[in-house]
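Assemble and predict.
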Amino acid sequence: MSEVKNKQVILKDYVSGFPKESDLNIISSTITLKIPEGSNDVVLLKNLYLSCDPYMRNLMNNPKDSLSSRAFTPQSPLAGYGVSKVLESGHKDYKEGDLVYGVTNWEEYSLIPAAQIIFKIEHTDVPLSYYTGILGTPGLTAYAGFFEVGTPKKGENVFVSAASGAVGQLVGQFAKLHGCYVVGSAGTKEKVDLLKNKFGYDEAFNYKEEPDLNAALKRYFPEGIDIYFENVGGKTLDAVLLNMRIHGRIPVCGMISQYNLTQHEGITNLAHIIYKRIRIQGFIVADFHHLYPKFLEFILPHVREGKAVYVEDIAEGLEKGPAALVGIFSGQNVGKQVLVVARE
Amino acid sequence: MSEVKNKQVILKDYVSGFPKESDLNIISSTITLKIPEGSNDVVLLKNLYLSCDPYMRNLMNNPKDSLSSRAFTPQSPLAGYGVSKVLESGHKDYKEGDLVYGVTNWEEYSLIPAAQIIFKIEHTDVPLSYYTGILGTPGLTAYAGFFEVGTPKKGENVFVSAASGAVGQLVGQFAKLHGCYVVGSAGTKEKVDLLKNKFGYDEAFNYKEEPDLNAALKRYFPEGIDIYFENVGGKTLDAVLLNMRIHGRIPVCGMISQYNLTQHEGITNLAHIIYKRIRIQGFIVADFHHLYPKFLEFILPHVREGKAVYVEDIAEGLEKGPAALVGIFSGQNVGKQVLVVARE
């Protein structure tokens, strides 16, 4: 049996407040690159690209204080979405050499239940890393959140926060493809430029330079907002509620501005949802995995023809994992934060 | 032409904070009991029963600070839902002697556009005042909010706040008829007794005697809440968000606890809607007027057979209007607050 070194990114202990690089550790363990005899429901993976996602912050909490009922295990590797190559399969649906996308561990090699695989990667004429983004969960999140939860109509006014992020950059493009007017907010000039010049947003602004978010939204939406694609929560949400139109919809994808606060900010304008008949709806992508084939059919031609673009922020090497993951909570990343473990 | 005295309840000026009786005034004006020549879209009404409703508080605000884009006009009579008798009609759909339900003014006689009439009262074997409650807008509000917005399933867990109020007492009864488990909250022992002994709530509690609303909800809903019928907002909503089940729904009918605050309380637990995929949806009954015939067909047999009950709090005489209306914001009323102008 071949036992090899297996570098891992582990969580030292549950985190409260802002996560720091020192909350994570790089350790070297070992793994036997062989599936245990008779295990017909596991696969052995070589991990290639790992996805750094905001929801992972909630999994660092002690589960008793968390939004999520799940949590990472202290002193064990993180887990998250990733692109991996099958080295050996105990499961009939997969074989050596397959490229797969699913929930894997933050380490070089992983032995995981085959049930954690979400799909097999069939199209390799596009960058493999895209399966952690535009062709993976963030892509499906944007698609399901905007089209299924947001129920957009042509000509409607759409606002997206964290608009250059892994999901936001796609929501803006989908909104334009659907014939909507779309405005995005982000936290740096560089990101605002991307929104306008790369992703096709009609308008964009830096929320850090707006002392009055309500006034900013009134400026960009004199007639109000039909759909607010919610990624951040907090003050932005409160200002949005003042600017929604009748029968507006707020698909709630995330509230990244709140995840590191021990006490979340209070939202004071909720009563506006009554007269305006607003629907605020939380969703998670796992409820929409069945739409993945339909989504892929929609998005692949756009990617191939350059009609949908995607900006990634690539960190090279598992050692960069702690910085890459922690960075997304202060907006260090420009575009989708990807961690490369190996390039095949 | 017969000119008669016409007592009115007028709003002195826009209100901020808690409304007081002194914000309203009783004045004696006059009215000519004759429709102006050639007016074929108005009706002349004798008002019988007026409805005291929480949404009226928002109409007392200066519209620039209000949730509603509409507002009462200072120095003019209030307007609201009521049961009236047609004295003369310029409109072909109505004739002298008809009993109608619609938006009328807080005065003895009103000349209003026929378009403000919502329906003609056809069934008079039930108390006429019921058309301001169980057979009127509150009834339709409970019906549409619970069945259409709440989309209940048999066996689900339902929580109702302001549960003995005009709408709440019906939501509880509808939930029981639908095979749900239902718990209500109210603000006095008398109301809690009504919930359990009159309206058939499975359980009920006095929120004023619960120092920890989260703990109270955990006691009554160890497995969580599927539907929260929201009438009050504020701390109750925040505690409910901690206790919702996955795919739960919150039809938002009102937030009466907030209407008299110049700054609404902050809701801090909204992020729970993401993992739990909660839908929070504001609604107003005007969007459901088309369901009234269907609703009446459903509710009338229940009323006649005593399978649906309704508790009214009756104030006699237009002079009692200010006290009756102001009282609902401190929970003085027990059941639906009705103001009798005349009994026919």
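The mean pLDDT of chain B is 96.
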